[in-house]
Amino acid sequence: MEVLGICCTDGNIHTGPYTLILGEENGIRRIRIIIGTAEAQSIALQLENIVPPRPVTHDLLCRITQSFNIQLIEILISRFEEGMFYSELLLDDGAKQIRIDSRTSDAIALALRVECPIYVTESIMRQVGEVFDDNFLEGEKEYIEENNIQNLSALLQKAIKREDYETASVIRDKIRLLEGK
Predict the structure, then answer these.
(1) Domain that holds residue 53
(2) What domain count does the chain have?
(3) pLDDT of 49 above 80
(4) Are 87 and 164 members of one domain?
(5) Residue 78 near residue 123, CB atoms below 8 Å
(6) Residue 26 has pLDDT above 50, yes or no
(7) d(Cα 90, Cα 65) in Å, to the nearest integer?
(8) Residue 104's CATH number
(9) Same domain flag for 59 and 25
(10) What is the mean pLDDT of residues 96-118?
(11) Are residues 84 and 167 in the same domain?
């Protein structure tokens, strides 16, 4: 899986919650995971290659594991129960491998930092995987091209209503660019 993006679910970037979108690397299915503000910020920092002046918790944990020659091999999103994803970290110290339970958002934040693979079981993909409509904007590209904030805002609301958060984040970024933010 690859991280496709993060968007604010309720429109308030200060309080979240956020939706993390994962997509199959060679497929068309996506899964959406609701995450908290701190985790969204940590993931976003890594996605944007921003190095904070002091390490965030996920950076610190990576430094600790590296100092003790422990390698994060993979992340497995292993279960989905009652609306919650469960994940495991596979760690290797050279002598043995162990799996450790982790919140999915923390596991993904770590995986991005060490560039290890993120896996999702096929049963989870069948249960919650969605095929996003990649042609959603095809008929509406003129709105984006004309740089009209009002039209883009309408398009953003349409994407949110369809729960197409990946497209919504693209449109949101275009609006911010036009507003000079």
Answers:
(1) 2-131
(2) 2
(3) yes
(4) no
(5) no
(6) yes
(7) 12
(8) 3.10.690.10
(9) yes
(10) 97
(11) no
